[in-house]
Amino acid sequence: QVQLVESGGGLVQPGESLRLSCAASGFTFSSYVMRWYRQAPGKQRELVAQIPSLDSTKYADSVKGRFTISRDNAKRTVYLQMNSLTPEDTAVYYCNGGPAYAYWGQGTQVTVSS
């Protein structure tokens, strides 16, 4: 059974950091590009970052220099380190991957507010 399980979300103040994790099971994790998306209330889901199997990474312009995506294939986990958070980063964050990007996690809420 395929599962992507996100964790690490929460409520933080502007300027603080969070690290999201996404644990994968049920497919050959190391063979696929993994992505983090986010969706803010009333907005479309946005691609935040992606990491292919060969460890090159891409980021949305809005998070470049603040967010870092990484993966540990031995642990079948992808991470999103988020620094210098702003209220505009408030969203539900989703992990995505697998063949044809078919698999999604349930999402984890990140709220940035003073």
Describe the protein in words:
This protein has no helices and eleven strands. With 114 residues, it is mainly beta. Helices cover 0% and strands 49% of the residues. The strands form two sheets. Strands 2, 4, 5, 6, 9, 10 and 11 form a seven-stranded mixed beta sheet that branches. Strands 1-3-8-7 form a four-stranded antiparallel beta sheet, with no helix packed on it.
- Biggest sheet details: 7 strands, mixed
Radius of gyration: 13 Å
Spans where pLDDT lies below 50 across 5 or more residues:
none
Series of H and E elements: EEEEEEEEEEE
| Number of discrete helical segments | 0
- Overall geometry: globular
Strand content: over 45%
According to DSSP, the number of beta strands is: 11
Distance from N terminus to C terminus (CA atoms, Å) equals 40 Å
Q: What's the average pLDDT?
A: 95
What's the helical proportion of residues? under 10%
Structural class: mainly beta
List keywords for this structure.
about 110 residues; seven-stranded mixed beta sheet; four-stranded antiparallel beta sheet; mainly beta; single chain
